[in-house]
UniProtKB/TrEMBL annotation:
SMART domains: TPK_B1_binding. Belongs to the thiamine pyrophosphokinase family. One of its GO terms (biological process) is thiamine diphosphate biosynthetic process. One of its GO terms (molecular function) is thiamine diphosphokinase activity. The keyword Ribonucleoprotein does not apply. Signal peptide: none annotated. It is an enzyme of class 2 (transferase). It comes from the Eukaryota. It comes from Anaeromyces robustus. Gene3D superfamilies: Thiamin pyrophosphokinase, catalytic domain (3.40.50.10240), Thiamin pyrophosphokinase, thiamin-binding domain (2.60.120.320). This is Thiamine pyrophosphokinase. Keywords: ATP-binding, Kinase, Nucleotide-binding, Transferase. The keyword Transferase applies.
């Protein structure tokens, strides 16, 4: 593949679809929030990749109930930590995981969401390597709209070079900070649609390569003018597409996927 000059960060969701992703950074962590989890093969893949598995409050109920039809499998998915203000987790579920080795971390601070506190907790576990370790976040984009927006806004609060992937069963979202980014896309598994979303900013001038409808930076993306929704990869017939995005303001990238039960 031809090297793109000036690229600051590279991204890919290959970790969702491959046992051996070459685009993984450091030792990934897995955070489970309180919404529907993906089907078992995706959960299993992320679980095996993650060095640290962390359930956030009601996300612990989700993990437990995900295996209601197969309690034997439940025993294979014991998180390392259960954290948050712990006001949503069912006591018997808490006892189940604690008795099997999970550690309880009560994190109470009304000024921060449980998701924000879980990221701070991960940082405390390995502050030296925190920035270089990827984070996969399940259950972050569905359910209540205010929760979704809160989770999306949290990406503004992590170091700009850190890779945090918000994963829902229908899409994956990342925050591209100011600069030039390369995204490796796999049309066999993701897409066909993708989007560039100017959330939390007034406007952004953006140029792209590798999309069906590229942007040339001459017109700003904004909620008042236009956003690039329902875009697509330029070469969906190819195994890998390289999408280059150069933005002068932070910008969210969203790509379609299907992690639902078959």
């Amino acid at each position: 593949m031809e090297e793109e000059k000036g690229v600051e960060l590279e991204w890919s969701t290959e970790f969702l679809f491959s046992e051996h992703s070459i685009y993984t950074n450091g030792d990934p962590s897995l955070i489970i929030l309180n919404y529907i989890l993906p089907r078992k093969d995706f959960l299993d893949r992320l679980w095996k990749k993650a060095k640290v598995k962390l359930c956030v409050d009601g996300g612990t109920n989700r993990l437990y109930n995900h295996f209601n039809n197969n309690p034997e499998d439940r025993e294979k998915y014991i998180p390392d930590y259960i954290c948050g203000d712990l006001d949503s987790i069912e006591p018997e579920i808490m006892n189940y995981y604690i008795s099997r080795g999970a550690q309880k971390k009560f994190l109470y601070n009304q000024d921060y969401t449980d998701f924000q506190k879980s990221l701070s907790f991960l940082k405390s576990l390995d502050e030296e390597n925190y920035v270089k370790n990827d984070v996969y976040v399940l259950g972050s984009l569905n359910g209540r709209f205010d929760h979704t927006i809160s989770n999306v806004s949290t990406l503004y609060k992590v170091p700009k070079e850190k890779h945090v992937y918000l994963i829902a069963n229908e899409s994956v979202v990342i925050l591209l900070n100011k600069g030039k980014h390369k995204i490796y896309c796999f049309p066999k598994y993701e897409g066909p649609t993708c989007g560039l979303l100017p959330i939390g900013i007034t406007e952004a001038y953006v140029s792209t390569k590798g999309l069906k409808w590229n942007l040339d930076g001459s017109f700003p993306l904004s909620f008042k003018t236009m956003i690039s929704s329902s875009n697509a990869f330029e070469h969906p017939e190819q195994e890998i597409n390289e999408v280059i995005i150069n933005t002068e303001q932070p910008l969210y990238w969203s790509v379609e996927c299907n992690l639902n039960e078959k």
